[in-house]
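Work package 3, deliverable 3.1, input record:
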Amino acid sequence: MAITVVGSVAFDSIETPAGRKERCLGGAATYFSISASFFTSVRVIAVVGEDFGAAEEAVFDARGIDTRGIEHARGKSFFWQGSYLENLNEAKTHATELNVFADFEPKIPDSYRDSEFLFLANIDPVLQRRVREQMPGVKLVAGDTMNYWIKDHRPALKEVLKGLDVLLINDTETRMLAGNNNLVQAARGVLALGPRTLVVKHGEYGATAFFGDHSFAPKSDGSAHHPFRAPALPLEEVVDPTGAGDSFAGGFFGYLASRRELTPAILRRAMFYGGVMGSFACERFGTERLQKLTRKEIDERFTLFRELTHLD
Amino acid sequence: MAITVVGSVAFDSIETPAGRKERCLGGAATYFSISASFFTSVRVIAVVGEDFGAAEEAVFDARGIDTRGIEHARGKSFFWQGSYLENLNEAKTHATELNVFADFEPKIPDSYRDSEFLFLANIDPVLQRRVREQMPGVKLVAGDTMNYWIKDHRPALKEVLKGLDVLLINDTETRMLAGNNNLVQAARGVLALGPRTLVVKHGEYGATAFFGDHSFAPKSDGSAHHPFRAPALPLEEVVDPTGAGDSFAGGFFGYLASRRELTPAILRRAMFYGGVMGSFACERFGTERLQKLTRKEIDERFTLFRELTHLD
């Protein structure tokens, strides 16, 4: 089933201990859609500037991603500059230029309206909400956010959270959103804001799903809302962690959208696929590794993650 | 098979967000031996002062731990005072008083000499080495260390590492010991110093075993020295993380010592038992929770950890 994703399509200049790269194609919607495209059909809503040309378009085309919802505006695309020199787990932002994103009014092509899955990537919660309202018929809505919106745009964010089936954020964001340093208690606080399921991403340590209702929870007898943890493995070489979280979300949501049923077992596998896609994303700068990936490599790493974290 | 453990038996004054406790029974050898005692018979080598009385002795007796190797010296026992007010994952040390430990000369009772397993808990590597040399007949030797010894006693520590079958340390210690921030590369660096297997403890995220030779490695075809990761689950309430790592080591090594064979599958289960024991240790101050534990509770949590991290 098709996913519509709204979020940023951008250019990133990135410096890591492995080197630096100027103006690679990036943005949450870009990583998400390339990652999800290995599992299902993907449609993007975003805005780009005049610097987004044939070469960038070709990246989406090569993965069969529908870009009819990418608006081309006058001016420059969203631009981010950051580095990971001291800490590979946390970017230091040097510049953020909204450019064409400053006046973005998401418009949804008619051809997107039968999408059953909607992903609200990390953008202004006001925009997330507008897209959500224009797609009342979707079956499952997931979303992401970040510290900036949690700190300074909480009322708008809270409106979005109310309608989410799955929220995917990291440890720090979970603690910040709930105002609680204990992860389990923080997760409960976040679930109380609306999302039915919370997926907390732990980077190289995997991710944990917390359940606000029983639909995805591992125990069907209702005895406990136990979390589920999908482990990941540490990587030999992290070239560039940019987009790993969005790639996780793409693998996770793409896999869910590729299945007829949504069961606890399917959710578990989706978490593993999320970890797999996140791990690939880190292996090269920007989307380079994701562009060259094959489904066979994805399934091999899935098997590896399973083998190397399971008892038998 | 019996384990002999050498390490500190101490009193700890601890402050955490959950409260404070003065002079609880603590020390690496204490946590380790109570934890391991649920799996096999345990013999302790340590030194205590005149403040170690019947109440403390009773804690060891209740778990059937052999204390004939605990020397009673004039003076006070090792004392540590610390807090975890800002960060539950890292203790802030306020006072360390070596007391009777300053002149400790480990002596091994004859009745300990048939121990097949030896655990060198976190103490001065010079003492670790002396004990190791006095027990040439052991089958498996594991050990722990900490940043203090890594930074300022590296030559003595390196001598100990050469003879270890398993080294158990945390992420930060692994990176510090190898001088490399990438965990996979750091692990390889540590293995090059001698240990045949390195178990890196990640706190609430579980632990990862890295293999320097094939004896424990998951793939017996030699195609890869893949690591194995045992996940853990975040806890609702962390009352006091003191001793969690030593309790992990006790569960891990105790389970290994309880088995006839040492295979990759047994090592995986040992890692899970380590995580289980570490998680219990955090639930109360000091060794309180471990003292009241039953094997049934241990096995139930083992099953829970497995269920909530495994795909099927």
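Chain B has one domain: 3-307.
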